[in-house]
Specification:
Belongs to the zinc-containing alcohol dehydrogenase family. The protein is an alpha/beta fold. It has helices spanning about 40-45, 130, 140-145, 150-160, 175-185, 200-210, 225-230, 245-255, 275-280, 295-305, 325-330, 335, and strands at about 1-5, 10-15, 30-35, 60-70, 80-85, 120-125, 130-135, 170-175, 195-200, 215, 235-240, 255-265, 285, 315-320, 340-345. The strands form 3 sheets. Strands 3, 4, 5, 6, 7, 14 and 15 form a 7-stranded mixed sheet that branches. The chain has a 6-stranded parallel sheet with strand order 10-9-8-11-12-13, sandwiched between helices. A two-stranded antiparallel sheet has the order 1-2. Helix 5 links the parallel strand 8 (about 170-175) and strand 9 (about 195-200).
Length: about 350
């Protein structure tokens, strides 16, 4: 089969590799129908995730069809169409019993990280009964790819961790796919304002199209002055960091009001300063995290009903053999106007 293989920082190949085989009775093999590229994959390619080693197949999102089933799998059979969760969960360890599937003792985020991932024609899924979700009849496959990672990440690590409440003023720093997905999920709780902050006018417009009430271009506007104007001088109740660089986390610390919450969603590869000398007196909360995917069944219902339409985040389509071009377009998002790409195995 063909797969996208990591060859060290800055290096990748689309090459022929061996098709995965069942290794444990709880495994399934899935034929990938649709996959995508995540900002985390770009972090890996920059060398920010050293646990990813030469030869690893990247990717942790997708929709596919079950091809082979291990003897202990009870919830899925050959031919089932499934959503592949970015997080693998055994369902029985200490952390899984707390719904902290991200820290599963025999799983967590391993696809495209510690084991081969979904940017391939086939993928092995460990602990399939707890790591896959059946696709409802008639569902939009492309919308459901967004349920592998970005929608549950924005919801669990952004909206829920930040405890968004009715009437809150929410600022989201970073209008990439995760930040835009946070615009969608924050609206579940009726905040009064959602302010998107980014450098890209096209992405800021996309945020407003999805429900943001205001936007700030941090390259051409004074963010602190604009936040001051929009909040009557108080600062925001919630700041979500959705980029993963020191400057954006620093900005979140500056724009919050007393009693506010900072939810860090971004993947950080370098150290960031925490200004406790200024924050200790402000009664704030700071949360971090890796998605666990416990919210996927709930989010699937919202997508089925049409209440949430994550397919609006998709801007480009490719075939699997165009994987390297897809990476080029996704990696040059500002020039290409890219949000999420869909890569199909037709």
């Amino acid at each position: 089969m063909k797969a996208l293989v990591y060859r060290g920082p800055g290096k990748k190949e689309w090459i022929e590799v061996d098709k995965p085989q069942l290794q444990k009775p709880t495994d399934v093999i899935v034929k990938v129908v649709k996959t995508t590229i995540c900002g985390t994959d770009l972090h890996i390619l920059k060398g920010d995730v050293p646990a990813v080693t030469d030869g690893r197949i990247l990717g942790h999102e997708g929709v596919g069809i079950v091809e082979e089933v291990g003897d202990s799998v009870t919830q899925f059979k050959k031919g089932d169409k499934v959503i592949i969760s970015a997080v693998t969960a055994c369902g029985s360890c200490y952390y899984c019993k707390k719904q902290l599937y991200a820290h599963c003792e025999d799983g967590g985020w391993i696809l495209g990280h510690l084991i081969d991932g979904t940017q391939a024609e086939y993928v092995r899924i460990p602990h399939a009964d707890n790591s896959l979700h059946r696709v409802p009849d008639g569902a939009n496959d492309e919308a459901l790819v967004m349920l592998s990672d970005i929608l549950p990440t924005s919801f669990e690590i952004g909206t829920l961790s930040a405890n968004v409440n009715p009437g809150d003023t929410v600022a989201i720093v970073g209008a990439g796919p995760i930040g835009l997905a946070a615009v969608l999920t924050a609206q579940f709780y009726s905040p009064a304002e959602i302010i998107m902050i980014d450098l890209d006018d096209n992405r800021l417009q996309a945020a407003k199209d999805l429900g943001a009430t205001a936007s700030i271009n941090s390259g051409s506007e004074n963010v602190l002055e604009r936040i001051h104007e929009l909040t009557g001088g108080r600062g925001v109740d919630v700041a979500m960091e959705a980029v993963g660089i020191p400057a954006t986390f620093e900005l979140c610390q500056k724009i919050i009001s007393p009693g506010a919450r900072i939810a860090n969603i971004g993947v950080h590869g370098t150290k960031v300063d925490l200004h406790l000398e200024e924050l200790w007196i402000k009664n704030i909360s700071i949360t971090t995290g890796l998605v666990s995917g416990y919210s996927t069944p709930l989010l699937l219902k919202t997508v089925e009903s049409g209440k949430v339409q994550p397919e609006k985040l998709i801007t480009h389509h490719f075939q699997m053999d165009d994987m390297l071009e897809a990476y080029e377009v996704f990696g040059n998002a500002a020039q290409e106007g890219t949000l999420k790409v869909i890569i199909s195995n037709d």
